[in-house]
Amino acid sequence: MNPGGDEFIGEPVFPAPGAFDTEGPSRGEPALPRRFTWRGRGYRVVALLGAWKSDGPGRGGLRRYLRRHWFRVLTEPPAVMTLYFDRQARHRKRPKARWWLYTRAPAPDPPT
């Protein structure tokens, strides 16, 4: 773990069928899964803590290309996770593997 408490993961997550936020696509963003599986365990998104985008050079380096949509979420079982959606699949053999868990941290203790 790093000093900030986030542990780098870098592994795919598997959204549950039909468990997507319907507001994302209306804004031109991917639909955030409300439930997903990671390492065989199910997680439910309780709250969206933040969202942003990252880009990079397009072909020929002339234009910028939107590469990823990032989401910082609070989950149940309790954790704070940073997920991202790859706009272009990384692996030809797994073209549907577009959701990834970037980091995970323990959920903060509830206020007393």
In this structure, how is the largest beta sheet organized? 7 strands, antiparallel
Summarize the helix and strand pattern as letters. Answer: EEEEEEE
Cα end-to-end separation: 27 Å
Strand coverage percent: over 45%
Class based on secondary structure composition and strand pairing: mainly beta
Mean pLDDT: 82
How many helical stretches? 0
Give the proportion of residues in helices.
under 10%
The number of E-state strands comes to 7
Radius of gyration based on Cα positions? 15 Å
Could you explain the architecture of this structure?
With 112 residues, the chain is mainly beta. It has one domain. It has no helices and 7 strands. It has strands at 7-12, 14-15, 35-38, 41-57, 64-76, 79-86, 99-105. A 7-stranded antiparallel sheet has the order 1-7-6-5-4-3-2, with no helix packed on it. Strand 3 (35-38) and strand 4 form a beta hairpin. It is globular. The two termini are 27 Å apart. The model has no long low-confidence stretch (mean pLDDT 82).
Strand and helix map with partners:
Layout: E1 7-12, E2 14-15, E3 35-38, E4 41-57, E5 64-76, E6 79-86, E7 99-105
Antiparallel strand pairs: 1-7, 2-3, 3-4, 4-5, 5-6, 6-7
Brief digest:
The chain has no helices and seven strands.
